[in-house]
Specification:
- By secondary structure, this protein is α/β, with parallel strands linked by helices.
- 28% of the residues lie in helices and 13% in strands.
- Helix 5 links the parallel strand 7 and strand 8.
- The longest helix has 19 residues.
- It is globular.
């Protein structure tokens, strides 16, 4: 069933129907067979699969009309078919495609501006929402009667795909267009909520609204939250419909869902990358490498002047839950992974995170501890990129606390009460047990 301002079909197709120029995509697809039944169906059916398998009208309650699809390479059915292809095969009218950061094919480097003038897919014009503007204008929306969102998110406030969803929801509200979200799993689960709530003065495209760093929402729940809390101008009148998943539970690890993993961006290579990302992405706000351009971005942290053995011993002594640290060396940098790669091509010494208990692991306090360790052990070499760190953290006091030498667990205690209160309110928007 569908939900208006709250809640999604499966036709089996071959992998040969894929985006142009995306031979790389096949290499990024990891089939999670542990969550797949002997019939080949995953334990979880995404909103996209239900939309095609059970029918457009049955899942949305909307009569077919020209659709603008907000999507990228992750908008796929469980058999690998792109949702755009499936919608066309079902005879639904498509008017436009809107792509987020990294582009429609998902191969553009992090932070790269994308200009899509004249680009199309099967004759459908593609409009970039990470180039001239992050919000679709009148010309882009010409002929569009419904907006549909299908992009795999990673569950962290500063991943820009939910900001793209917000901007396209604003456009829908201003023009009286129905907005359909086909839901997908939160790859890091929907139970644990972590990190400071964003302070409004630090709102940016890497964090628009006062939510914790790790928010626990699926994209469908996040959309409902944005509308319900009044963050979308004109949202009270927005016809929001969420096509729910079938079979997803909040405690699920991504591998348990059986939904094939398609790397949402060049450095989000595996589900375990997504698990550490809400914490170790904070490294971006420093002069330390977060392992971009390696096989394990955000799990490898270091710098040319660091000592991995010293760092790992220091961090292990903190007894952080669900994680161990090991000394390692790595060389950042692989073409096309980021606009900027810190210490590109230079050997770095540092640490490798190994998660020992996915359910106990707390990504944000772990990230804070890693930053604090570098700051404490290497005060002369360590440097802040303060404005960016504050945008990611959503507050200034976190950087100031690390600078003052406060214990990471003490800093976690400062955000926990507000985060717990937020979680109690946010749970009213949950769609899944």
């Amino acid at each position: 069933m569908h939900r208006s301002a709250r809640s999604p079909h499966t036709v089996h197709r071959c992998l040969s129907c894929r985006l142009p120029g995306t031979s790389v995509w096949i290499g990024l697809l990891i089939l999670n067979l542990s969550g797949t039944s002997c019939t080949g169906r995953s334990a979880v059916l995404t909103g996209a699969d239900r939309l095609i398998e059970e029918g457009w009208y049955e899942m949305t309650g909307l009569e077919p009309a020209p659709i603008g699809v907000v999507t990228n390479h992750t908008g796929r059915l469980q058999d690998g078919t792109h949702l755009v292809d499936a919608l066309m095969e079902a005879g639904l009218p498509l008017a436009a495609i809107f792509s987020p950061e990294h582009g429609f094919e998902g191969s553009a480097p992090e932070g790269a501006r994308i200009y899509s003038a004249g680009e199309s897919y099967h004759g459908i014009p593609i409009h970039s929402l990470y180039g001239v503007s992050t919000r679709p204008g009148d010309e882009m929306l010409e002929g569009v009667s419904i907006l549909l969102f299908d992009i795999q998110d990673v569950g962290a406030r500063f991943y820009t795909y939910t900001s793209t969803m917000a901007r396209t929801m604003e456009a829908a509200a201003s023009r009286g267009l129905p907005y359909v979200v086909v839901d997908r799993p939160n790859p890091i689960g929907g139970v644990l909520v972590e990190g400071p709530l964003l302070e409004p003065e630090l709102s940016s495209f890497v964090g628009l609204y006062p939510v914790p760093i790790r928010h626990g929402f699926t994209v469908g729940e996040y959309a409902s939250y944005m509308v319900g809390e009044g963050f979308i101008p004109g949202g009270a009148d927005l016809d929001l419909r969420v096509v729910e998943m079938k079979g997803w539970r909040r405690t699920m690890l991504y591998e348990e869902s059986g939904v094939p993993w398609v790397a949402p961006s060049p450095n989000m290579v595996t589900p375990s990358t997504a698990v550490v990302y809400p914490g170790t992405c904070l490294i971006e706000g420093t002069n330390i490498s977060e392992g971009r351009g390696t096989e394990r971005p955000f799990e490898l942290i270091g710098a040319p002047w660091a000592d991995g053995a010293r760092l790992s011993a220091y961090l292990d002594d903190l007894n952080l839950p669900g994680v161990r640290f090991y000394p390692t060396t790595f060389t950042p940098g692989r073409p096309g992974t980021s606009v900027e790669v810190k210490w590109d091509g230079q050997p770095c010494d540092g640490i490798r995170l190994e998660i020992t208990d996915m359910h106990a692991f707390r990504a944000v306090v772990t990230g804070v501890a890693v930053v604090s360790a570098f700051r404490h052990l290497y005060p002369d070499e360590f440097a802040w990129r303060g404005a960016h760190f504050d945008r990611l953290a959503g507050v200034r006091w976190l950087r100031e606390g690390i600078e003052a030498g406060l214990d990471p667990l003490e800093l976690e205690g400062r955000w926990r009460e507000a985060t717990d209160q937020w979680r109690n309110r946010a749970s009213s928007y949950w769609l899944y047990p």
